[in-house]
Amino acid sequence: MKKILIIYSKTGGGHLSLAQALEDGLNHYFPSQFETHLIDPFPKIYASSYKTVGANFQEFWGKNFYLTNRPELAKVMHNLNDVVVNRKLVKIIKKEKPDAVLTTHFFASLEIEKALKKAGSKAKIIVAIADPFTPHAVWFTYKNADLYLSPTKEVTGLMVENGIEKEKIVTTGWLVRRDFRENCDEVDQKTLRKILGLDEAKFTIFLGGSGSGGGKIYELAKLLSRNQQIIAGSQIIILCGNHRQLMNRLMKLAEAHPGLLHLLPYVTNVRELMAASDVVIGKAGPNILFESIFMLKPFLATGCLPGQEDGNLEFIKRENLGWVMEEPAEAVELLTKLSTSNSASTLNPLIQLIIPNLKKIRGQNLDGAKNASSAISKLLQ
Q1: Are 187 and 156 in the same domain?
Q2: Which of 236, 272, 277, 311 could bond to 206 as cystine, CB 3.0-4.6 Å?
Q3: Phi, psi dihedrals of residue 10, rounded to the nearest 5°
């Protein structure tokens, strides 16, 4: 049995979701062939800084992205990061003795090679790119991995342009966890809503941004709770993640409108919550976006992290997978329209138009986990 260390970071749920999808795929398609371990080797300050800057200083985030999005600066960033994580990586590698190290984070590629050499390990290095359209140059600094897993043809093209050998790249499609891949169309929405304590007939909105509660959630909830049509005919599932302050603020709104806002902290049943909903709203992070696609739910993007997620907004527009409305008032106006002609038996015509596009993109990415797992298995045989 081959041992694989899967490196992720708590700096956003995307890295963990991708790591889980990879682990799930390996165990599902190649049972008993791999022993996998998910490891976060990064200091806690990385996650807290990401949460603070990503939620409150997006303009700064965007400027920093474009300023550093150059090969020479990207390499400097890797070298500085290596000083921070090298000792821990070496310790982990010596203890675990892996056959391969699979990274889902841009700050664990060049760093892994240095740690492997220091630990005297000959483990293979696999890099899984976690941004589907506009990745930062730090993803392309390290060019000596044994295998690169690219989520899209756009990223594959960028990798080749940046000097990564095409023979080392496998374009997999976007990876989602197994529960999103299987039996997505067999969910009875009415029954599921009843189980979740929701009204079976009301227009249902899924509102979530990230594990840190980002995505203009409070602003949208406040406006929606003032809209008489939404109050009368809709219900809103809100994921607050681990953002306690956001939860406390929303509780005051929920108390004033019983049955309208259904507040949840960090949960593990996102699939069921999406299945129970008619539309998904949030910051256009790649995981929530593709999970909504797999569940055939139109996505209303309220924004994104400038730079690295800009391509996600363009993807939504180009493929007509939903809507991009960064002003909360515009989003509420659209949701009012969507809820108007929606009933327990008939979807709003605007939503019906989008379903075929969602099915097309889902079909193109349905084998993502299988393709990735097969490429890894082939490498390690």
Answers
A1: no
A2: 277
A3: -80, 10
Identify whether residues 8 and 42 lie together within a single domain.
yes
| The model's pTM | 0.91
- Supply the DSSP string of 303-344, one letter for each residue: ---TTTTHHHHHHHHHHT-EEE--SHHHHHHHHHHHHHT--S
The partner residues of 126 in beta bridges, in order of sequence, read 102, 147
Q: What is the pLDDT of residues 260-293, one digit of tens each?
A: 999 988 788 899 999 999 999 999 999 999 999 9
For residue 236, the domain's CATH number is: 3.40.50.2000
Helix (H) or strand (E) holding 208: strand 203-208
Separation between Cα atoms, residue 71 and residue 170, nearest integer Å: 22
Number of domains in the chain: 2
Q: What is the rounded distance in angstroms from the CA atom of residue 233 to the CA atom of residue 121?
A: 61
Helix or strand holding residue 300 (H, E): strand 299-301
pLDDT digits (tens, 9 = 90+) for 323-332: 999 999 999 9
Alpha-carbon Rg for the chain in angstroms: 21
Say how many C-beta atoms besides its own lie within 10 A of residue 219's C-beta. Answer: 15
191 shares a domain with 166: no
- Domain containing 167 equals 2-171
Looking up residue 164, the CATH number of its domain turns out to be 3.40.50.2300
pLDDT in tens, 102-158: 999 999 999 999 999 999 999 999 999 999 999 999 999 999 999 999 999 999 999
In terms of DSSP H, where are the helices of the chain?
13-29, 44-56, 58-68, 71-96, 110-119, 153-161, 178-181, 189-195, 217-224, 228-233, 244-256, 270-275, 286-294, 310-319, 328-340, 349-365, 368-380
The confidence band for 62, taking pLDDT boundaries of 50, 70 and 90, is confident
The one-letter amino acid at 167: E
Contacts of 328 (CB under 8 A, 6+ apart): 216, 219, 220, 223, 302
Considering the domain architecture, whether residues 145 and 194 belong to the same structural domain is answered as: no
55's tokens: 């939620």
- For residue 187, how many other CB atoms are within 10 A of its CB? 15
List the one residue out of 155, 156, 82 whose CA is nearest residue 117: 82
